[in-house]
Design a protein that fits this description.
heterodimer, A: mainly alpha, 2 helices, B: about 500 residues, alpha+beta, TATA-Binding Protein, 3 domains, 6-stranded antiparallel β-sheet, 4-stranded mixed β-sheet, 14 helices, globular
């Protein structure tokens, strides 16, 4: 396998059990958080009102 | 010797009708037919698909507006060719669009986006025909969360003389690991016995459904490499690699890199420059192992006994590709497109390695995970909550006002103008040009069409079939003037003959 000259250590894992917000990029973290908050506000407006019914009703036939 | 990587992408869309159900929407087959017929009626296209080389028994058919609301009979599934050279049809209870043949990955991206727009236009046209309160939903995804999967397939032109075994061994590592770049993300897991707490989020929509390394099946026991050998062109010169393992992408960057990186690696395989160093010991286990680990930490076993992460394998492939660019150039995929793809691929791998959140504007699974985690934090939602699954589905919702992927800040690489143009105009540099132009100019005199031929009604017996066995012939450069200067198909055929 080809060698890479610079190997950076990956950031610590986001585990599946946590419900923390995504870690911000170094620098500009406030801006990103604000963008994410705006996004969440928007999503709350458009998200299906009855999630459980919607998810239950979403069935597809198998395709290729 | 690498040949031009003509490519295309076929997407099976999820379909659901809500509200008052009528006879025409009572099942997904008839709903899909209504959807497509509604689009065709709005655009006055009546040419049917010619199955002569595929399976027997289906006739080209026209239709009228009054036909639209009648239930479709299973044996006459709607199957149309569009003026952009694409095929729009019902396949296994899903509406499906196959893009026309494209010369580059970037062109295929534009036509994939055009396909989304066509489906959106179809939804609006169909909704107008449904009873009040009823609406059609379509999703560009691959999994209903209940064990059913449907595909987003890629097609690549390859030289026939490349041994199929070499293709299998040398592209499999990419098909197993590319999901970290192009996976669409999924809440939950389809494997029996795996709970939501074991796998609450995974990288790929499709990984759970792959059970074989190589095979012919596409609907069950799905293989990572599909051996379907239906080139739809000169089989002595060409092979069409039919790839079923990918996720449908909402991110334009992901679609471009999915098609582009694969095209480059296939060109390298034609030139025998990938080798076997990255071959995996157990690709089926690996594809799930990697999908179930959004932390990107897990390693998989290579045939040579070493272990490597998906990221390391992708870096290995990218480095080989960069070497190939320097030694051979990227003519088979288009120099500029190839350069752009390599730069994007490198940037994404760099981002995934240092800070995955930094590629949320390019990588679907990262964008989706970011939203899921933030939403869960704001509303104190636990794994397994239906709202998370609803968010997952709505990420792929093609209703313009509901689609979450349009709201998460994904980069847009195409322009509205070029996408709109591609809804009705074919590519210029493949045989799709000839197909699309003829369909636009003489829709009533083309009896049927498929990928490698068209059948014209020249006004007298017999019908005339024009073979199109070369994907790179029938381009604008060679036939635009012929078509422009011919008033009738009979004239066109006379000129083609001379």
């Amino acid at each position: 396998m080809a060698e890479r000259t610079q190997k950076q250590k990956p950031t610590p894992a986001r585990t599946d059990e946590t419900v923390e917000a995504a870690p911000a990029v170094v620098g500009g973290s406030d801006k990103l958080k604000a963008e994410l908050d705006d996004l969440l506000d928007e999503i709350d407006d458009v998200l299906e009102t009855n999630a459980e019914d919607f998810v239950k009703s979403y069935v597809q036939k198998g395709g290729q | 010797m690498a040949i031009p990587k003509v490519c295309g992408i076929e997407t099976e869309y999820g379909i659901l009708v809500r509200g008052p159900v009528s006879e025409s929407t009572s099942n997904p087959v008839s709903a899909s037919s209504l959807l497509i017929n509604a689009y065709l009626a709005a655009n006055l296209r009546k040419v049917g698909w010619d199955f002569e080389d595929e399976h027997p028994g289906s006739d080209a058919r026209g239709f009228s507006v009054s036909d639209l609301l009648e239930p479709e009979i299973e044996t006459h599934l709607v199957n149309a060719v569009l003026t952009n050279g694409a095929r729009y049809y019902v396949d296994h209870a899903h509406p499906e669009i196959s893009t026309p043949e494209c010369r580059t990955a970037r062109e295929a991206l534009v036509f994939d986006r055009a396909a989304e727009e066509i489906v959106w236009a179809s939804m609006q046209a169909a909704n107008a025909l449904l009873p009040p309160g009823a609406e059609v939903l379509c999703h560009k995804n691959n999994s209903d969360g209940k064990g059913n999967s449907y595909g987003c397939h890629e097609n690549y032109l390859l030289a026939r003389d490349v041994p199929f075994g070499r293709i299998v061994h040398q592209i499999t590592p990419h098909f197993v690991t590319r999901q970290i770049v192009v996976g669409a993300g999924k809440v939950g897991c389809e494997l029996p016995g795996v709970s939501t707490t074991d796998v609450s989020f995974q990288i790929s929509q499709r990984a759970d459904f792959f059970e074989e390394e190589v095979g012919l099946e596409t609907t069950l026991k799905r293989p990572i490499i599909n051996t379907r050998d239906e080139p739809h062109c000169d089989a002595s010169k060409y092979r069409r690699l039919h790839v079923i393992v990918g996720d449908a992408n909402m991110s334009e960057t992901a679609t471009l890199v999915k098609l582009g990186a694969t095209s480059i690696l296939l060109a390298m395989i034609e030139d025998d420059l990938i080798g076997d160093d990255l071959a995996l010991a157990n690709p089926v286990a690996a594809i799930r192992h990697i999908s179930h680990d959004p932390s990107l930490q897990r390693t998989v076993l290579l045939r040579n006994g070493r272990r490597a992460t998906a990221l390391e394998i992708q870096w290995g492939l990218l480095e080989l590709a960069l070497k190939y660019e320097r030694s051979h150039g990227l003519e088979p995929v288009g120099h500029e497109v190839g350069r752009e793809v390599l730069a994007l691929w490198e940037g994404i791998l760099t981002g995934l390695e240092s800070n995955p959140g930094s590629v949320a504007h390019q990588v679907d699974w990262v964008a989706k995970q970011r939203v899921l985690e933030a939403y869960a934090a704001r509303h104190d939602v636990r794994p397994g909550d239906a709202r998370l699954k609803a968010l997952d589905l709505q990420y792929h919702d093609l209703r313009r006002d509901k689609c979450l992927a349009r709201r998460v800040g994904l980069d847009v690489l195409t322009t509205d103008a070029e996408v709109h143009h591609a809804m009705t105009n074919p590519p210029l540099t493949t045989r799709a040009y000839f197909r699309g132009r003829c369909l636009a100019k003489w829709p009533d005199q083309i009896v049927a069409a498929n990928w490698d031929s068209m059948v014209f009604d020249v006004g007298r017996e017999p019908l005339r079939r024009v073979p199109m066995m070369e994907p790179l012939r029938g381009t604008a450069e060679s036939v635009a003037r012929l078509i422009d200067e011919s008033d009738t198909p009979a004239e066109l055929l006379a000129r083609l003959g001379s």
